[in-house]
Amino acid sequence: MRPKRGILAAHWALDPETTFLNHGSFGAVPNVVLKEQSFLRSQIEMDPVRFYEREFQELMYEARKSLSFFLNADPNGMTFVRNATEGVNTILRSLNLKEGDEIIVPNHSYQACWNAVDFVAERSGAKTVVVDIPFRVRNKSQILDLIMDSVTERTVLALIDTVTSPTGLRMPFEELVERLQSSGVDVLLDAAHGPGIVPLDLENLGAAYCTGNCHKWICTPKGSAFLHIRDDKKDMIRPLSIGHGSSFQGSDQEKFDYEFGWPGTQDPTPWLCIPKAIEFLGGLVEGGWPIIMQRNRKLALEGRGVICEALGTSPPVPDSMVSSIASIEIPSDGDIGPMEFEGDPFHNLLYDQYRIQVPVFPWVHHKTRYIRISAQMYNHIDEYYFLAEALKNNL
Ligand SMILES: Cc1ncc(COP(=O)(O)O)c(C=O)c1O
After folding, report:
1. Within this chain, do residues 360 and 213 fall inside the same structural domain, yes or no?
2. pTM confidence score
């Protein structure tokens, strides 16, 4: 028998025959938001020229305003990108790095973004400084100390996650931004798991750069992310794709908006659905977004407890470092290699035999294999018990 799903599951298009415990990888879009996207697409296709000439600018403005309000961010520094990888690349490839400059990357960082740091470092003669942080951390001071101890007079930038991907660790990013930037190190905040999973107040944080996905925890269609650039850095940062905006005649702000807002012809509907997604999800639960985040976190913690018990292990990190995703080590025989495109054999077994969708991956930097659960409003604690039974029967 399939485990129970959460009472809100009917709002999502997810297959009821699948136990979906991986909101973290690609999010999942509620039906109402899919409908909004179809509506917007039909508006475009009724007359694409009219849409782009007469409706697009206003809708983009509304989307930027809505997300800026949600994140307490300066709307004049808010731009859209397709995903957090693109946001990270946009910053890194705009920076004027010099030989000997150092960029800090903790070893829990998302590999694609870490690769982008290596790429710009190699071509400029700068250096990637990897900070080794174990998975089983005792408290946030341990992370703060390890990262701050890696700062030298040559450090120009630190890539800091809000929530790490392989290890599902809620980083002490507020303190890190404050301490790194007070030491003269700009922070590129990777908030891929940011909006809708942890409270974010960009104005107060003051990070030089912050990029994050809307297609994960605020459940917009895929290809919807933001890049926020602090006012004093705007001159330096250019979009990855140089286009019409470059020769646009207008104020600095108009030029900035145009350069980022028109990366060439593409489907803008994932961005334009942001206001609907924020409003719809926020209205599903009394108390809105703060309660959604609290509820998801509580479920992730409960789910983690169930899995840890099944695996005979203790919770690996303090509760305060868990958001709505949580990783746990799983036993493995043999070497831990890099991630493979076909997926870890154990992930595939859980899907093929039990229809459980949950990521299992090797993390070569820790020589460990992790299973990572997610909790979103469509989940139910029964689903984690179901996973726990499958783990007990197969490990
Ligand atoms: C911490 C982190 N950074 C970046 C990304 C990349 O996100 P995207 O594939 O949307 O660019 C992810 C994706 O899971 C992530 O977890």
Report:
1. no
2. 0.98
